[in-house]
Amino acid sequence: MDRKRPKLLILRRDTVEGRMVARHIALEEDTALSHAANQAPDLGEGANQGDQAVAEEETRGEEALIQLESDMLPLGAEVQMHTVSSDRLVLAKGTREGEGCLAQGTGEGSGCVDGPPGAWSEPLGEDDFDNEEEMEGRDNERRPAPKRKWRWKVPVQADDDWEDCSALGPGWKRKVVFRRSTTLPAKRKWDTYYCSPCGDRMRSKVELTKYLRGGVDISRFDFQSGLFLDEKSRLKRLNHLEEVQSSSTSTSRTGTPDLDRNHTSDSLPGTPQRTPQSQASFPHITQSPTVVIHNSLPATRKASLASGSPSLRLEQISPQRLSSVASSSRDVVISHLSQSLLPLSPTKNQLLQSGLQPPSPTKNQLLQSGLQPLSPTKNQLLQSGLQPPSPTKNQLLQSGLQPPSPTKNQLLQSGLQPPSPTKNQLLQSGLQSPSPTKNQLLQSGLQPSSPTRNQLSQLRLQTPEGHRKVVVIRRPDVDLDPITSPPPQHLSLVTQWTQQWSGSNIVLNGHREMDTEKPTCTGRHGQVESVEASSHKPGSYSERIQQLKTANDKDAEKKQSPSIVFRKVGGDKWVLGGKQLEFKEEEFGNSGKTPLYTKVRFIT
DNA sequence: CACTCCGTCACC
DNA sequence: GGTGACGGAGTG
């Protein structure tokens, strides 16, 4: 702690144009972020304290604009970088969601949470802004003062918003979009659209009925959920079954709204349970609770984690399981990882992983938690967020979700709407992988992750399929809060974004994602303290951590981190260097030895 | 009151 | 004009 820390520079995509604003942030010594900085003192080749100091001097108080040429980074998302030298920045281990998003975690949160993955291009509501300052900034950017506020839309694949609705037959698509109106949250609405194989769109059951005209009996078809009643009943039974089982093994702890999003309640008749895909996939989960295998931790450790005390938790995902998950959706993987790091209640986690439906939160709870369909737009995991995210989904993220009804919101947020990468990918990917029994999961300390809402819909991202194995180390000093922590989707977005340029993995919020053939890996610096902190823990555990640390350090020594190049094009403007990377892909692309940090260079 | 449906508006 | 989203009337 006494050693000099590199100053964190945060690149935040806080405008609709995708402009990135780099700025230094003051970190409290004990904050999670500052820990991240502390634990990443060695920022790569050429990095040294002197340089860092210089950089601080040169950049202190400055706010540089960086033209982001990629839309991969969600609005509000931030990439933390350490100032290594006057012209070099290194991605910090922690990347967080925009403050706005965080703030929304306790509020409506539709901005992030709702945003469907990739749908930062939707109409905006008053609640999309955290504060007046931000509001003003955006108001000046576009459009006069229209009755409706719109968010610049980033081109995304059309399919991102549309989910297959096999219930109606091949080729049918369905989309659920939460409205981001400025009316009272309780009055929030969502629209469900269907697109026939021919491309005809229907926005009501009436229209659908007319279109089908006898071809298909949709009298028992639930327009909102996209399922036929008999299927819903079946799912309900499965969920009930799981719930009973999990209740007997889980401990009581308050769950987070975000997590709840993944589970829909059947208590509300007529309310959508899940999107077609979600519904279709969760059944699999229910039957095969585990998607991710975590290394087991001593019960006492888990307890400490739950209480929020500093502790190191290593969660290793089975390569095969990850592979199956990652192969179809990287966001899913991230989501799982991120979620697993959260101090979720065993019960909820279990429920989530098993596809069970935790007791649905009350509407007030949802509102308080800031849930809001990402969108409905982003439709959106996580939301995805995580915005059920809707962002149309999408965007679940967040936390800002606000479902008209808990059930619907949850559905949407869990991926229903997200334009997100999502939902389908999530479901298809991990949910169906062979899984250990529920007891095994519990014993291993696994924590299910939840899909995001509209985040899903709103966040919709195209996820590369490069990740197969993921190892996550939870930094003891970074205690993610289920509500305030950045939605997994955002983390994944950031990772994706950075990978697009660096081709490597980075550490997000203290979690490191790796591509890997290595069964176990860990972030290095961040783990040092963790190991020490947990030294009093069971020897086997500490030893293991130490081994991981050692191995990681060795890897770090062997490899140099890749760099993302930013070119200075103006007085204080920077442009991503035409996607130029200052590294050789072969050096760390598939070697399995992923650098801990991705460097970002600012070339003047 | 919650939900459905659809007219209408705004943007591209 | 197409699409997405909002507002509000209609319905149970």
Automatic annotation (TrEMBL):
Ranges of compositional bias, category Polar residues: 265-284, 377-461
GO biological process: DNA methylation-dependent constitutive heterochromatin formation; negative regulation of transcription by RNA polymerase II
Keyword Transcription: yes
GO MF entries: methyl-CpG binding
Keyword vocabulary terms for this entry: DNA-binding, Nucleus, Transcription, Transcription regulation
Low complexity composition-biased segments: 246-256, 365-376
Superkingdom, taxonomy of origin: Eukaryota
Protein name listed in UniProt: Uncharacterized LOC115165269
Organism of this sequence: Salmo trutta (Brown trout)
